[in-house]
Each structure stands twice: as C-alpha cells, then as structure tokens.
Amino acid sequence: MKVWIKYLIGVALGVLAAFILPTENAAFLSFLSFLSDLFIRMGRYVVLPLVFFTAIVSLNNLRNSKLLWRTAGWTFLIIILSSLLLTAVGMISILLVKLPRIPITVDVASDVFQLNVKDMLLSLFPDSAFSAILEGSFLLVPLVFAFLIGWESASEELTFKPLYTFADSASKLFYAIANFFTEILAVCAVIISAFWIVKFRDVIAPGIYTPMIIMFLIDFVIVVGLIYPLILRFVCHDPHPYRVLYASLASLIFSFFTADSNITLPLNYRHARESLGIRRRCRGFTYPLFSIFARGGSALTASISFILIWRSYSSLSIPFTDILWIFGLSFGLSFLLGGLPTGGSFILLTILCAKYAKGFETSFLLLQPASMIMCSFAAMFDTATAMFGSYIVSVKTKTIEHHTIQHFI
Q: SS3 of 141, please?
C-alpha cells in the first residue's frame, strides 16, 4: 500500500473518531491531548540524527563532486523566490477579496513574542561544538556543525575516510530507523488528526473564521496545484510536473495536522529517494535548509491575517505605504523563523501587530483561536515548497535518477 494512502486512511479514521469518541469528557480529552503530543514527539525523535549525519555525507560529496556552490546557489535562490511568491500571493488574495470582519474582543494580551536575532546568531556557535547536536528545534545549529565536518572531511579524503565511513553508516542507519517511524506514524495519525479535529470544531463552530480558512485553502490549491507545477514545467522542462505533488501527498497530510516544519523531514527524505530519485548529496543539503529558511507559508498566512485584522478595526482603505511595509516585514521576518518549527505563523502575526503599533499591539488576539489553523496551512505551504524546490535543485544539478510513477512508494 502506498504511504500516502496509509496516512490518508489514518486521518480519515481520526476524523471519524473525533465524532464518535466522548471528546466532551474533560478527562478523555486530556488523555487524547497527551497521546497526540506523545506521537508528535515520536515523529521528531529521529529528525536530528538523520539530518545531522546525512548533512555530513551530503556536503562531503557535494564538495568532492564540485557541485557545492551550484547546489547552494540554486537552493537559496529558490528559498528567496518562493518566499517572495507566497508573500505576494497572500497579499494579492486578501487585497482583492474583502473578507468579513472579525468581531472585536477585549481580551488582555500577555507579553508579545520578540525575535532576538543576536541570540539566534550566538546560538549557532555554543560554548561547545558538541552542544550543537543537542539542539532539536533550531536545526541550523547542528547543521552548521555537520557542514563544517563535511567540508573538512572532504579536504583530505584518505585521512578522514574513517570519519566519513562512520557518518555514511550512521546516515543509512537513521534513514532505516526513520522509515520505520514513518510507517508507525501513519497509525499515530489517527490520534493526532482526531485531536486536531476536536480543536478545529471549536474554532469553526461560530463561523467567524470560515472565510479566512477558505482563502487559505484556495491559495494553497492555486500555489500547489497550478503555480508550482507551471514553474516545474518551465524551469525543469518536466512533462509530468504533478508527479512531485503526488510524491508529496503523505508529507502534506502529516504537516497539516502536526503544523511542524521539521517533523516531515523523514517523510520528505524517504519520498525524495524512493519516489523522486533525488540523490542523498542533494536531499541532505536542500531539505534541512528549506525547513529552516523557506517559511513563505508563514508569511502568506500572517500577511492575510494582519490585513484581515486591520479591516476589522477600520473601514478605511489601507495606505499603499502600509501595504509595502506589511509585505516587506512579512517576507523579511519569515527567514528568521527557523528556530520555531511550530507556531511560526502566529508569532509572525504578533510581531507584525507589535511593530505596526497604532493601537494594534494586541489585535492579534482576534485570531488567537484560529492560530492552529494558520500554522497548519503555513506548514503545508512550506512542505510543498521544500518538495518542489528540492526537486528543481536536483534537476538543475543533475543529482537525480528519475523513477516512473508506478514505482513511487
């Protein structure tokens, strides 16, 4: 059975369970929440060692094959352009379609989250390099250490061959373990999706946020079902661009219900190798970088949400200079969300509100109940970007062996 079908069945059973199980019972709901958190933690369990050892091998091979700078150039170009594209799609859609206002609340806000860029930069180089491999959320920290090892181990192949052999074996080992976990998580998706649906019912019941959710969904269909395939057709001259979308189905499903940009990496690696045929030297380099920096989905959902809040407070038209400010800040701050694999979209919204001021400092509370939906769509956008973007990089660097769709897992 195809992997995406397993996840789809798991989600379908979870949706059914959400309506059958006694979720109105507080004790049972607490237990369901515990199981959901446990299974999500299980999904994150193997991410760090898989990314770390695969990155060592990847950078070593890229440097030896003289493909490092070409791969890096294409990767960061796509990260920047995809974030620019998604931010533009979000801004255009909310400016063209005027959604109904959100009723104003009088809730009191707690302290607003602030992105501390200095601390983020300092965290890249902890007091001990070995401390880097303990950081499980901000993947750039262990990734920098892995890239340093991969770079230096390629400088003298004979001298560092034992180290490379160890990293190569560890990468294959954790890939096998990750494959096992991805099979188990298809079953765990029943509980994860059931708990998500329970929370979703409470959000959707009043009907206040339904238009915003529909806009997110339409934007996703336009981007992933039309724009990204057209880009593949034009840039890669691929006659069958939708096979990348087909290979991404399991990752998209899981990312939506977990709202985590890191947890889908094992699934991405597996489909990259066994479905799309992307070689390890490419996927070990591109996928972590996309997970860290390609957060255009957060920029899209946050920009739509902020303008919806603006219109809920005022009936005046938004000044063009303010539109440019919202666009620029959403786009720019999205690259700083790497340390926030979950919740980045709503946190970006709180920062936009705080920076805009003019009485908007606590206006993000209007959408706080819908934050889980914002983050779910943001994660799904970002997962699609990683899959399509890595495929483009592999084609442009010729680090791919195309498989027929019949052999996709």
A: helix
Length of the chain: 409
pLDDT score of 109 more than 60: no
Burial-class residue 258 by CB neighbours within 10 Å (0-12, 13-18, 19+): buried
319: DSSP letter: P
Side chain identity, residue 220: F
383-398: pLDDT as tens digits = 999 999 999 999 999 9
Alpha-carbon gap, residue 194 to 31, rounded angstroms: 12
Percent pLDDT > 70 in the chain is: 93
How much is the pLDDT for 157?
75
pLDDT at residue 111, rounded to an integer: 56
Q: Please answer whether residues 244 and 388 qualify as being in contact, where contact means their C-beta atoms are separated by less than 8 angstroms.
A: yes
* Measured distance CA(149)–CA(234) in Å, rounded: 37
> pTM score, two decimals?
0.92
Q: At what angle do helices 68-96 and 280-293 cross, to 10 degrees?
A: 40
Identity of residue 377: F
Enumerate residues 6+ apart whose C-beta is below 8 A from 304: 90, 91, 93, 94, 212, 215, 216, 219
Indicate if the alpha-carbon torsion angle 22, 23, 27, 33 is positive or negative: positive
Instruction: Assign 41 to helix, strand or coil.
Output: helix
pLDDT of residue 29: 87
| Distance from the Cα of residue 349 to its chain's centroid | 17
